[in-house]
Amino acid sequence: MTVILFFISSAHAQPACAGQKFENNKRYDRCIDLPQLDSYLHWSIDSAKGLVSIVFIAPPATPDGWVSWAINPTGEGMVGSQSLIGYRAPNGLMVVDTYNVSSYGPLVKGKLDFGVTDMRSEYEDGVMRIFATFELLEKGQTTVNQVWQVGGSVTEKGVPARHDLQPANLGSKGSLDLLSGEISGGGNGNSKTKRRNIHGILNAVSWGVLFPVGVMVARYLRTFPAADPAWFYLHGSLQVSAYAIGVAGWGTGLKLGSESKGVKYTDHRNIGITLFCLATLQVIALFLRPKIGHKLRFIWNIYHHGNGYAVIALGILNVFKGLEILSPSNKWKLSYIIIISSLGAIAFVLEVFTWIIFFKRKSLKTTKSDDNGDAGRHT
Ligand SMILES: *[C@@H]1O[C@H](CO)[C@@H](O)[C@H](O)[C@H]1NC(C)=O
Question: Structure pTM?
């Protein structure tokens, strides 16, 4: 329970954008996970010069689409927005252009109301990035109205075609405080980060902690005759609860995966799916186990133990992969490392202890016993 509380308190992990890296280790002072369209904004502000450098990151609606980030000095929304739009030209190279959007009609390239320099864009792994530095219109200005968007196609003449009119496309706007990083509008800004953190907590608790503890219960508790059959029920209920929490965490992961169009964490996803299959087999196998003493019980034990250890190893590996993706501040990763190595240390001591007891018992009954050398592991 402490462990669960501990992980819940870690729910205030950093936003996902904190883990995004740029060429030459270029750093920006702030970043936010924008509340719509899987987009991110990084920026640094030079208040003295009135300059703001930004990186806008978003997956275009299709690989031939476009992404856009804009400031609207006169209002909210599309009309009036001073836009930077990135897309792939027919020759395959990324282009970024400025558009002074004065109506809902076809967009026309043109100068913006403020100066923009260092514009460039990239397309990688399904995600487009726009880099630019712009001048703030007023001295001392710290809040802007931002509008961002993604679309599915660009005409031959390089005119970004109309975007979808889904709630996400209509809600992708609001004010941005360049100093504090506070945003308004655009729906619930934290909902995705929150769900990613919940996903992380559920899975770290189940695959990363409860499953290993359940295995330890089975392996070490049964050395004591007095713990029979309590260990079995404890093991079973721990693993079944771990499985229930794990499946919930797995489901949230699939949902997050299906929502993040451009960004794919293939390894994390594949390991997660494998884990789900192995753990499900494990639960099914529980009900199909041959009776103690049955010929096949020995084989079932090997299968059950092998599969169980695979789940533990992959589970811990995937918690670390997930921590990399979520990139919370280092203390959370460190905390998980401490928890899992403490479990490892306890397991090591108990392992030694188990073998000592095993050899003691063996020497006590050397004359009559034909023990199969399984260190008391057979039930
Ligand atoms: C942008 O468009 C508006 C409305 O058509 C116009 O008033 C403004 O002068 C334009 N800005 C520039 C820099 O061309």
Answer: 0.57
